[in-house]
Write a structure and sequence with these properties.
This protein has 10 helices and 2 strands. By secondary structure, the protein is mostly helical. Strands 1-2 form a two-stranded antiparallel sheet. Helix 2 runs antiparallel to helix 3. The N and C termini lie close together (about 5 Å).
Length: about 325
């Protein structure tokens, strides 16, 4: 990506973060070895704490603990189960006993599939049913990478339910909608379409993606926080880091299954999205959360959760770039 213009030094995020590509200089072999051990220790500590402190007796995961240290039952929302599954699948290949993590994930999956979101605790996250079902679908798609028929069957069930809701979601998103959310839905549906060679799902994902593009400003090529009532980016609209990351991820996922005539446009979008994400990163390995239309950033504590968006975007580039031949393009390295 191009070199970003100089920016004021940001306020540190609420949780300390290690320098990450592309801001940090390339480390040597010794520092890479040390970083590997540090990350491994963090993963193992997180897995151990999740399994021993945050799981209820019925297998559901809670987001908080009671004063006595027990899982707080009122914090077991549908979103919590999804994020726990995503974390367990990510850690599965790193731990000494992946079978134990798989058993934990299966327990959460079975509880999640046996209940509606109304049966679980309320969540502070947006409660759009189609969005929640797509997040559940993503969690099951990650499990299905091990060719487990049970995960695949759950993914098919959730895909059918989400597919039925997405048309109404598109209608509601013409005015006041969040383009980043549309890109997120397009990405997850595109993953399902790519894994199942499903042309109809790919077409719907492409439509969601095109609707999300209405929220990309023509001049700066950034994703605004929300569309105006007329379905266009509002003048003076803000942009958020996570939305740029979702645009990048959606463009690379849909490129993998796109017809040849559409692929160059998606590749160009991926480059624009990477530049847009780059603007939120800083030379010392941190990030800015919210960018104003004038190009300056709100002086606020950047959420530590934004690191997930950054790491996930880079992971998608790693997963899809080689299959598309992008490793030969300097602008995407």
């Amino acid at each position: 990506p191009p070199t970003a213009p100089p920016r004021p030094r940001p306020q540190a995020p609420t949780t300390r973060s290690s320098p990450c590509w592309p801001c940090a200089p390339k480390p040597g072999l010794k520092s890479l070895h040390a970083a590997h051990h540090q990350v491994f220790a963090l993963v193992m500590g997180g897995v151990e704490r999740l399994q021993t402190r945050f799981l209820r007796d019925d297998g559901l995961c809670c987001a908080g603990l009671s004063p006595n240290g027990a899982p707080s039952p009122e914090t077991a929302s549908a979103y919590d189960q999804v994020f726990a599954l995503l974390a367990l699948h990510t850690a599965r290949d790193l731990v000494p006993d992946p079978a134990a993590l798989e058993a934990c994930a299966v327990s959460i999956r079975d509880q999640m599939m046996g209940r509606t979101s109304e049966d679980l605790a309320p969540s502070s996250e947006p409660s759009d049913p189609s969005h929640l079902e797509l997040l559940r679908l993503e969690a099951c798609l990650n499990g299905a990478t091990r060719h487990d028929d049970r995960w695949s069957a759950c993914a098919d069930t959730l895909h059918a339910a989400a597919n039925a809701r997405l048309h109404s979601m598109m209608d509601r998103s013409v005015g006041g909608g969040a383009p980043g959310r549309l890109f997120e839905c397009a990405r997850i549906l595109g993953r399902y379409a790519h894994a199942h060679d499903d042309a109809r799902s790919h077409a719907l994902a492409s439509n969601l993606y095109d609707l999300g593009l209405l929220g990309v400003s023509d001049r700066e090529r950034i994703v605004v926080e929300a569309l105006g009532d007329n379905g266009q980016p509002p003048r003076g609209g803000r942009s958020r880091l996570w939305a740029q990351a979702e645009w990048l991820k959606a463009s690379v996922v849909l490129s993998a299954g796109a017809p040849p005539a559409r692929r160059p446009r998606l590749e160009a979008d991926a480059q624009d999205a990477l530049r847009a994400l780059w603007r939120h990163l800083t030379p010392d390995g941190l990030w800015r959360e919210t960018r104003l239309s004038a190009g300056n950033f709100i002086n606020e504590a950047a959420a530590a959760t934004a690191f997930h968006s950054i790491a996930s975007a880079l992971s998608h580039l790693s997963d899809f770039a080689s299959s598309l031949g992008w490793q030969e393009r300097p602008s995407l390295n």
